[in-house]
Amino acid sequence: MNIFTSRLVVLAALLSAAPLHAAAGDDLLARMSALNPDLHSYSATMHAHVALETFPFLSTDIVATYYHKDPDLNKIAVTSGLPAIAHGFSQLYPRIEPPARWSALYAVSQTSDDGKTASFTLTPKVAGNVTRIEVNVDDASATIRSMRWDYANGGWASMDDRYGEVQGNTVVTSQTGHVEEPSYKGDVTTTLSGYQLNPSLPDSLFTQ
User: Fold this and answer.
1) 167 FRET partner, CA 20 to 30 A, in 3, 61, 154, 173?
2) Residues 6 or more apart from 76 whose CB is under 8 A from it?
C-alpha cells in the first residue's frame, strides 16, 4: 500500500465517522437534534473496500471497529486487512465536529430546497485545507444524504449515506465515497454493522 492508498484508508475512516445527525437550517437543526436523544456512545464493526483508480491501481479490504462517544470522540481501530507498510494507520482518530458547533465554524447558507432535499453550503470561517462543504439533507427524515468537501489544492471528496434503525435509533449502515486529488483518485465503500449502543467507553480509549 503506497501513500495514496493510505490516504484513502483515512477517507474510509472519515466516511464511517460521519455524524448520525447534523445541523442545517433552523427547522432541520431542531429535528436533527431530536434524533437519537438517548444514544450517547456506540461501537460498530466497519468493513471498508478502498480502491485506487489511478496508477498503481491498488485495492484493499479493511475490517475495523469504530467507536464514538459524545460529544465528539471518535476512534477507528483497524483489526485486519492493513498491510504492514501502512501500520501507522491502524489507529485513527477522526475529528467530527458536533452539530452545535457548525455555526461557529462555518458560514452556513441554504442554496435550495425542493421539498424533498435541502442543500446547504458550509464555508469555513478560518482558511485551511477545506474551502467549502456541500451538504444535502433529506427533509422528511432530517438526515444527511450526501456531503462534498472541496480542497484548496483543487481536489475534492464526496460521500453518500444510507441509514437503518437499531433499537429505535437512526444509524449509518453503509456509505460510498470518492476522492480526487491532483495526483490520484479512488473510491471507498463502507458498511457498519453489529452496533453496540451506549457501551461504557473510557475517555482513555480515545487518547492518541
Assistant:
1) 61
2) 13, 16, 17, 46, 64, 65, 66, 67, 91, 92, 93, 94
- 104-162, pLDDT tens digit by residue? 899 988 898 898 999 989 999 999 989 999 989 899 998 889 989 999 999 999 999 99
pTM: 0.84
C-alpha 115 chain-centroid distance = 25
Q: Which among 178, 201, 207 has a CA at the least distance from the CA of 44?
A: 201
Number of domains in the chain: 1
In this predicted model, what pLDDT tens digit does every residue of 46-80 receive, in sequence order?
999 988 888 878 788 999 999 999 888 889 999 99
Residue in this structure with the C-alpha cell 451538504, named with its chain if needed: 135
Locate 8 and state its grid cell: 484513502
41 Cβ contact partners less than 8 Å away, ≥ 6 residues apart: 67, 68, 69, 70, 197, 198, 199, 200, 201
